Amino acid sequence: MAALVSQLDLRVRYSETDQMGTFYNARALEWFECGRTQWLRQAGLPYTDMERRGAFLPLVEARVYFQGRAQYDDELRVVASAGLCGKARLKFAIRISQAHSGAPVAGGYTVHAVTDVSGRPIRPPAWLTELMARHGREDMELEDGTG
Amino acid sequence: MAALVSQLDLRVRYSETDQMGTFYNARALEWFECGRTQWLRQAGLPYTDMERRGAFLPLVEARVYFQGRAQYDDELRVVASAGLCGKARLKFAIRISQAHSGAPVAGGYTVHAVTDVSGRPIRPPAWLTELMARHGREDMELEDGTG
Amino acid sequence: MAALVSQLDLRVRYSETDQMGTFYNARALEWFECGRTQWLRQAGLPYTDMERRGAFLPLVEARVYFQGRAQYDDELRVVASAGLCGKARLKFAIRISQAHSGAPVAGGYTVHAVTDVSGRPIRPPAWLTELMARHGREDMELEDGTG
Amino acid sequence: MAALVSQLDLRVRYSETDQMGTFYNARALEWFECGRTQWLRQAGLPYTDMERRGAFLPLVEARVYFQGRAQYDDELRVVASAGLCGKARLKFAIRISQAHSGAPVAGGYTVHAVTDVSGRPIRPPAWLTELMARHGREDMELEDGTG
Fold first, then answer.
1. Per residue in A104-126, pLDDT tens?
2. What domain count does chain C have?
């Protein structure tokens, strides 16, 4: 089965710009989160349900490449895929581009531990590994910077 | 005993600017929070301790007057005072100005309920009313927009 | 002609929550901005066009009432209306509620000056007063806290 | 001459927490910015001066390792160093730890282009390469993830 690739469009908020006239760099990580949320929802397991079942996904690593400018009110497309990474980590790969021109804006990935509510690592539950087997990519290497 | 007036200096972060070249408006409410934190610490009851004792202070109202621009790296002075407001509310009055010139940047107030961890209103505990009796202002009317 | 009432749905981002488990208070002002953006777009004059024509709308005042909790991934409805306020100010009134239950989350208003790019007040251009005459409310008093 | 290592202490704001009870991941990049600002100031060239001289430092890459939790009001120490990276890029390496215990919170680096105000890459001006020769590290490799 082909890996799930989710898609979400959003508009750059004024609050996300900075005095350089483009988006402030940390906003990319917030948009990465929007991409993860959308991927999990489309995979059938909204992240709220995950937390309700006792599995949290704190970040252990994030890498962002800044590839182009985006201004207030620009419509951006956030494309996400995901996969297990090693035995106990999840990795989300994200690409953000201008929705109309396709011009790249930012890309990268986040790596997540699986923990309980107190932040202690847990073995990924069966429902999570099954979800990733069904919808995840198999090429998520920990050190593959291109995601 | 004179009411406590706390003071805190902070610098405008690049992340707090927007493409208009001044601070983004919602940042004022984040700086108001810095002012409250400082006031409670100087009053001898850091807000972390309050939450540990089971009293939370969610906002029920905020009012902000935007009075001047502030740019990246400007040093701002956040001056705060507080008081009980009615029987069960706290009010913090804040003034933010340029630390060097004194030029006003923003002012206003926030009104807070006292709740338990689940957000349910509780009667302000004795240690809180005593703290406010010792350090608070007595002129905190709910409708006094000037704080 | 009836005043324009715009509507926009958005989901609460994880980045917008805080450790109290609801949205952080300043996020309300960011959502107010989303409401303004939507209103201006539906009125036929996206805010980007306004800035291109040389008219900026910095805030001079904001008032927010916090009415209910909203958690990560909740779908919120942002309803906005606008009007001239005095001779040279614009006022946006905003109501945010849970999209499904209709439960109120936050409401309030922002008051805006009309300025040039450097922040200097200008007389509202004819195209702006005409837009507000066509789509704006006529009851936007400066001191009407309920918006 | 030994490379400059700057240090800045800051407290976690409530606005920087999320419902997991630790800081929201993107805040790390905002604290990285605080570290860069401090380094440049201590090196004698505040970033505001750089922009006034026409040199901007937009990010081309960021990498963050999340190493430990940090809660509201925790005092954090942000330690930064910097160096030229290739011919036309700057790299800042950052370590964030708990100010009192020294426990690591986050680390990583950002890589910056040197551009004019419109975002076009420029050759690093002499005053910038001289500054980096005086205060920078010489081991800033582009692919050295450990910074």
1. 999 999 999 999 998 899 999 99
2. 1
